[in-house]
Amino acid sequence: MPSLRLRSWLTALAGLMALGARAQGTGATVPTPTAAPAATIRQWGISLRDNVTGRVQLRFSSTEASPTPSGKGGLVPALWDVTGLRLESFRSDERSDFVIESPSCRVNVTTRDAGSPGTFTARREADGVSIHGRGFQFDGTEKRLTVSNSVQIELRTRLFQSKPASP
Rounded to an integer, what distance in angstroms lies between the CA atom of residue 44 and that of residue 84? Predict the structure, then answer.
């Protein structure tokens, strides 16, 4: 039975996406569906890879995600409203570079962006930097984090410890 339910959900999602694409493509007026909003996907995740090397660059995961409505009765396939975001960026050797966590935000998987006016935490284990704040925008192409409000930065003391002298 669970596979039948999943198949029904996927069929409904594909129908909504086709309806939105048809409405946007022809310019025709299509009535906005009044059915239940788009289904929520539990334990959603996507890994984005470098086109040349195939290595993972970013990994988005969340406890729940829903495709974003287009306002024209369809869905925007690239935009996701997520709950419990964990965004992990990787170095070229595929080791974790930094992690951003947010209770809720919007993710654009095409442009590799994420943002929210709400709270978030960003940390980089390699050097012990941790940032807490409210309101962020992450540019996945440039791997740039912009914070808008209530910023607190924690630095671990090992950053300030002297390095042993080289012989």
Answer: 10
Residue from 124, 130, 84, 74 nearest 105 by CA: 84
pTM value?
A: 0.67
Class of domain 38-160: mainly beta
- Distant-in-sequence, close-in-space partners of 82: CB < 8 Å, separation ≥ 6: 44, 60, 62, 64, 65, 66, 104, 105, 106, 107
Residue 29, number of CB atoms within 10 A of its CB: 9
Domain range summary for the chain, segments of one domain joined by +? 38-160
pLDDT tens per residue across span 69-108? 888 878 888 899 999 999 999 988 888 889 999 999 999 9
Give the number of other Cβ atoms within 10 Å of residue 62's Cβ: 25
Return the number of other C-beta atoms located less than 10 Å from residue 151's C-beta.
12
Q: What does the alpha-carbon distance between residue 80 and residue 38 come to, in Å, rounded to a whole number?
A: 11
Q: In what order do the strands lie in the sheet with 75-90?
A: 41-49, 56-69, 75-90, 96-108, 113-124, 129-139, 144-155
Q: Could you tell me where the DSSP H helices lie in 31-92?
A: none
